[in-house]
Design goal:
The protein is mainly alpha-helical and 441 residues long. The protein folds into two domains: 1-190, SecY subunit domain (Preprotein translocase SecY subunit), CATH 1.10.3370.10; 198-419, SecY subunit domain (Preprotein translocase SecY subunit, Orthogonal Bundle). It contains 17 helices and three strands. It has helices at 2-30, 40-48, 54-61, 65-68, 77-92, 94-100, 104-135, 144-171, 176-186, 189-202, 207-228, 265-284, 290-302, 308-329, 332-341, 353-387, 396-440, and strands spanning 231-241, 248-258, 344-345. Strands 2-1-3 form a three-stranded antiparallel beta sheet. A hairpin with a 6-residue loop joins strand 1 and strand 2. The relative contact order is 0.10. Mean pLDDT is 78; it is low at 1-5 and 433-441.
Length: 441
Amino acid sequence: MAGLGGLGKFTELRQRLMFVLLALIVYRVGSYIPVPGVDPERLLELMNSQKGTIADMFNMFSGGALHRFSLFALNVVPYISASIVIQLMGQIYGPWKAMKNEGEAGRRKLTQYSRMGAVFLAVIQSFFLARGLQSQGVAYDTGPGFLLTATVALTTGTIFLMWLGEQITERGIGNGVSLIIFAGIVSGLPAAAYNTLSQVASGDMNILTLLGILALVLGVTFFVVFMERGLRKITVNYARKQGGRQGYMNQSSHLPLKLNMSGVIPPIFASSIIMFPATATTWFGQTGSSGFQTTMQKITQALSPGEPLHMILYGALIAGFTFFYTALVFNSQETADNLKKSGALIPGIRPGKATADYIDAVLTRLTAAGAAYLVLVCLLPEFMRTKLGTSFHFGGTSLLIVVVVVMDFIAQIQAHLMSHQYESLLKKANLKGGSRGLSRG
């Protein structure tokens, strides 16, 4: 019986993993289905001119789908944007904050709002993307027909990916939306590795530089894993009432605070803002006056990757968004109130406001270290491209997403195996308890 239980455990896990694999294959196949009415050669020329813009970043997230203008060109970016907005509103807007605290029903309602917001953003982004491509001469037939076709096709692709991500979360392992983004990023790694090897073969890069890059890649990956697992555990004592002469007995626990509580949100926001001038110059600079064009070109040149102003401003934006987003997702006063209600206290700290101030001070130091870590990792690709001359775009937002998703995926597999292990142990205990009860009767 125990062998059959273990076999069933691995059979279910295998089925879930196979579902994830098949779903990601469907996603990758769909990313090669183009939107009708687009000139592929003209599109290729346009996308090659988008290096260092928001379009380049979105193309990385979509696994090249934007470069091909496929049905999945927008990927799940509208859904992620809507989810972030709903999450932020759930922290600052009273009715939604109360809804968030209602439990599963409230979270389901907020999820529904995220879906509706994703559809709205997908329609807006699809329309303006199609309009921008039409103005660049990419469409065969310009007019309302192409705009309607492209808007409907891209919005439908986003809705399908949103549904596919939820199916992966429910029937597979891990977070479906994160795995879709992960698959898009990883799909570009073979081409990047091939370009790096081609530089070695052509003599543009020597073998020692390649070995140094590989060592740097492994070292940074280990560093990111180490930092993402970093926790600051604040000791918390619970007073529990006991019967008899013992009175009260203290129970000790921990309040875990992550080093990087903001995740990958700060680099994404910072990249979007710092790439906006280059994107505006590409799409709108050609239609403005000569003075406007000159100004936009100077700003774009100063903010281009590798320039000192770009690195300084990029790092400052990441640090600022790290503190901002951490303050929104974690409320020190609310945490202190919850500890006080449950009869818990931090040793040496009075309950209430003193506890909130202490947690806030600890969190500020952690966030400062987390911001420095994010800045270091995100500026690494700029250093590699400018100083080492490599085209291997490793690091930054892509590396953070890959590491976080893989760590979460492995953790969920382990949790799935542990839950089945505990379930089998409970079944054995119930079976033995029942047999003893029958023998006594």
